[in-house]
Amino acid sequence: MLIGFFDIEGIIPKEFVPPRQLVNGKLYCAVLRRLRENIQCKRPDKLHNNSWTLHHGNDLASTNTTVIPHPPYSPDLNPCHFSLFPKMKLKLKGQRFNSIEEIQIESQGVMKTLKRNDFQQCF
Fold first, then answer.
1. CATH architecture, domain 2-122
2. Where are the domains of the chain?
């Protein structure tokens, strides 16, 4: 499973959940802490001005983060589902992989090819 965050400038952090790892509140809070650390490094002006918000599913976030409300059962409104993942699927279509590691390496390569314009069109 890929967990990724992006804004109109591109991918901020991304990470793969280890195989058979349960995605629970503890893991998700750790991911959100790493997100804040990445924003601090890559977009410090947005963090200092508190000018960023998080748009994600209806998962509960236990951080001091402004969250854009998301209607229940509406994955079609999630930017990853209607923008990022389809772009990745197109570039990975038809390829065969022998391991999870190969999938992860190729997925990261695809994410690196995405341009700033790809993210701006999402929002």
1. 2-Layer Sandwich (3.30)
2. 2-122
Q: Give the number of C-alpha atoms closer than 13 A to the C-alpha of residue 89, restricted to the C-beta side.
A: 7
Stretch (H or E) spanning 4: strand 2-7
Per-residue pLDDT tens digits for 42-71: 888 887 777 777 766 555 555 566 666 666
Tokens of 117: 């314009």
State how far the Cα of 52 lies from the Cα of 66, in Å rounded to an integer. Answer: 7
Burial 42-77 (b: 16+ CB within 10 A, else e): ebeebbeeeeeebebeeeebeeeeeeeebeeeeeee
Query: What's the whole-model pTM score?
Result: 0.67
